[in-house]
Amino acid sequence: MQRYLIRRLLVLILSLAAASLVIFAVVQLVPGDPASFMLGTGAQPETLAALRQQLGLDLPWPVRYGAWLGGILTGDLGQSLTYRTPVGSMIADRLAVSLPLALLALLLAVVLAFPIGMFAAARHGRAADTAVMAGTQIGVSLPNFWFAMLLVLLFAVNLQWLPAGGFPGWTMPLAALKSLILPAIALALPQAAILARVLRSSLIETLGQDYIRTARAKGLSRAQALRRHALRNALIPVLTIMGMQFSFLLAGAIIIENVFYLPGLGRMIFQAITQRDLIVVQSAVLVLVAAVILVTFLVDLAYAAVDPRLRQP
């Protein structure tokens, strides 16, 4: 297990280093000059050159990359070109919304998907299985922003149980949690449908194995064999999907954040791109990529816990 852990850590570090270089290079290719955007199209060339020098945009890209990477290693993500505030504090403020939202949405997706997937797998080939698969296909197909607007109409406008949007901050925990419920449900529905389908397929494949037939021959029902033996061995593809879903929910909730006026990380990146605030874009994207790589690392560890064969050298 120790060798396996060391190998995965090395892959994590190398992946982060490669990601930082790729992100920096891609952001530099984004059309538009931050200094020109800040000063406007009528700025004098001398003023524009002075601002570029002040912002460090006139330096060669290897120097700027080295300065940015060195700052990251010391915990300094740089300063926003637009707001002149530390990028680290901006990202932390937005993560306080995006991270709980992603975790809540993933929790709801798992709570919905596992019973549905197990139910369908236990009744494979029957009418109940067909109905569940049709329902999950609808869940995958529904646009989450459209579903979000339906939730707002029902629970915020008509029933007035939950707020329609905005985020009051964590100084009021109950109000903050209530403001995340509707967006979390809107995000969770398609993810639950995908996860349920993957779990069902994995369970059906596992239920066809010889050791399951042996368990059935000893007197276990199909449902008992599924819960006691098949579920653990069917988890590897499910864990992969869960890791990908968390990464998507953390970084890809920009539409839902705009529907509910949530000050999340995805919305901040979108605004930074429109303002050509490159340091915010590259630092925030690197944080998201680091989160994806870290989740992948944790999923690999979960693989090893589920399947001991993966821990062998």
TrEMBL record:
Matching entries from PANTHER family are given as: DIPEPTIDE TRANSPORT SYSTEM PERMEASE PROTEIN DPPB-RELATED
Query: How does the protein's chain sit in the membrane according to the entry?
Result: Multi-pass membrane protein
List, alphabetically, the GO terms of the cellular component aspect: plasma membrane
Keywords noted in UniProt: Cell membrane, Membrane, Transmembrane, Transmembrane helix, Transport
Q: What protein am I looking at?
A: ABC transporter permease subunit
Entry's family note: Belongs to the binding-protein-dependent transport system permease family.
Name the domain of life this protein comes from.
Bacteria
Question: Which residues span the membrane?
Answer: 99-121, 142-161, 181-199, 234-260, 280-306
Q: Where is the ABC transmembrane type-1 domain?
A: 95-299
**Which Gene3D superfamilies has this protein been placed in?**
MetI-like
Instruction: From the Swiss-Prot or TrEMBL record, state where the protein is found.
Output: Cell membrane
Which Gene Ontology molecular function entries are recorded, alphabetically? dipeptide transmembrane transporter activity
UniProt xrefs under InterPro entries: BPD_transp_1_N, MetI-like, MetI-like_sf
Show the CDD domains listed in the entry. Answer: TM_PBP2
